[in-house]
Amino acid sequence: MEVLKLIGVVVVIVGFAIKFDTIATVVIAGLVTGLVAGMPISEILGVLGRYFVSNRTATLFVLTLPVIGVCERYGLKEKAIDLIRSMKNASTGRVILAYQAIRTLAAAFSVRLGGHPQFVRPVVVPMAEGAAMAKYGDIPEKVSDEIRGASAASENYGNFYAQNCFMGASGTLLIVSTLVAQGYDVTALQIATWSIPIAVISFVVGIVRNLTLDRKLDRMVEAEKGGAK
Amino acid sequence: MNFSVVLAEIFYSIIGIVFILVGVKALKDPTAQKKGTTVAFWFILGFTFIFGKYIPEWLTGLCVVAIAVLTAINGVVQSANDVPDHKEVRARADKFGYRIFIPALCLALVAVLAATLGSSVKALSWMTANNAIGISGVVALVVALLMTKAPAKYAVVDGTRLMDNVGPIGILPQLLSALGALFTAAGVGDVIAKGMAAIIPANARLIACIVYCVAMALFTIIMGNGFAAFSVITVGVGIPFLIMQGANPVIVGALGLTAGYCGTLCTPMAANFNIMPAALLEVKNKYAIIKSQLPVACVMLVIHIILLYFFAF
């Protein structure tokens, strides 16, 4: 029964999908795969231990935490906020785009900005909505939802597509250790270098997206006002 | 053992010490909840990092199972952290200005520099890409401490604070790459590859590129986690249908994970990126963020396929 071997994959999919504890899900998937393959318990534990130790590479990001923590204590996040606050009189789309630029660079240099709770909600959304209010007066709920959705999205674009440009990022290290464990000799520098094109492209897509957002808001406000008449 | 291996073990030991210090922080915290299991988690994890290379493999395996049991019973929680006071941070930010970005820049640039030197200068070959990350962490920390004149204890205080913030999930990438290796050893990749052979005809590079990127995104949509998708799809599709057909493993790997992230942008399963922020920003439609992201995710996925097709072969 070859197909039985896939049970580990099924465990991973189901475990993640039902939000069972992630660490336990992965370990159970490993144990089950070993059992189905007919390995005795002692051998399964041995294989698990061997691969766990040989893949410690993927956890090297811990070595970057002390310096990031100290910089946070000395105002790293505050200066990033100052940087975006210095943009006065920018349109909604431009404010969000500026945040995406900052977030992309921060991710590429492994700087934590606090994401949605600490940056998007207190800084980006008020500025982006403020710009819309300056232009349109009161803004309808639908327009506000559009702005907030786009603001939150810019955080995700910058975070996801740029983080692997940093050699010590956990995603970069996951790629390296996975491929090395499979016998392919790749390094963190190579993976980080080849992550740059996608980071740049994602920002270009962001430019298009946010400049069209301004026009979309124009249309939405016009339609809303037209409907009210 | 040559010097690069010794240095690597030193760095892994430092990581182990960080884990143990997170445990010590919980141990010393009188208000800590679930103290016993939390301390046990960090101590066991630290032990495997420091001594993993010297103890029997089955013992490390047993430690990994113990770690999983401790997280499964929800036994690991954060202990009290010395969080920097907001007013003090603001005052320091005004004092140091944008110079505070220098250590962060050092972190990234020193790593690149060290790895480049290590791969081009023979006498410096001990600076492997992995060791370069450790070296950059140390150099940037020294720069930060010299520049801010911060007491050295903050390296420990803030390092353990961030590690505790990250929590047990921080070892997920390591566990997943270990699982990927185990899948391959057990022949799981071969089974997936056989099934996939029905969809991907031989020598059909473009189709292989499409299946790889789309599978990454789809698995991420189902699981809500790009890392998990990466370890499964790399073994099942990436290696047999791209890398073994001559594709560059570096490009396949680098593009694979971000192709998965296109799926993250589309799925309510990735609640902490897409659903919780919607509540936090008080958006009326809880899918507003996903709705905003969908077109970008589709465009980015197509771009991934194009880049993979033209650059990997």
Topology summary:
The complex is a heterodimer of chains A (229) and B (313).
Chain A: H1 7-17, H2 22-36, H3 41-54, H4 65-73, H5 76-85, H6 92-108, H7 115-136, H8 141-162, H9 170-181, H10 188-193, H11 196-228
Helix pairs in contact in A: 1-2, 2-3, 6-7, 6-8, 6-11, 7-8, 8-11
Chain B: H1 3-28, H2 35-51, H3 57-72, H4 86-96, H5 101-120, H6 129-148, H7 153-166, H8 172-186, H9 188-196, H10 205-223, H11 226-242, H12 249-264, H13 271-274, H14 276-280, H15 288-311
Helix pairs in contact in B: 1-2, 1-7, 2-3, 5-6, 8-11, 9-11, 10-11, 10-12, 10-15, 11-12, 12-15
Q: Low-confidence stretches of chain B at least 5 residues in length (pLDDT < 50)?
A: none
Which strand-content bin applies to the residues of chain B? under 5%
Number of domains of chain B: 3
In helices, the fraction of residues of chain B equals over 70%
Q: Give the biggest sheet of chain A.
A: none
Give the overall pLDDT of chain B as a whole number. 94
**Poorly predicted tracts of residues of chain A:** none
Globally, the shape of chain B reads globular
Kindly report the oligomeric state of this protein: heterodimer
Summarize the structure.
By secondary structure, chain A is an all-alpha fold. Helices cover 75% and strands 0% of the residues of chain A. Chain A starts with 6 loop residues before the first helix and ends with a helix.
What features would you describe in this structure?
- The complex is a heterodimer of chains A (229) and B (313).
- Chain A is built from 11 helices and no strands.
- Chain A has helices spanning 7-17, 22-36, 41-54, 65-73, 76-85, 92-108, 115-136, 141-162, 170-181, 188-193, 196-228.
- Chain B folds into 3 domains: 3-72, no CATH class; 86-150; 187-311.
- Chain B is 74% helix and 0% strand.
- Chain B is built from 15 helices and no strands.
- Chain B has helices spanning 3-28, 35-51, 57-72, 86-96, 101-120, 129-148, 153-166, 172-186, 188-196, 205-223, 226-242, 249-264, 271-274, 276-280, 288-311.
- The longest helix of chain B has 26 residues, at 3-28.
- The chains are: A mainly alpha (229), B mainly alpha (313).
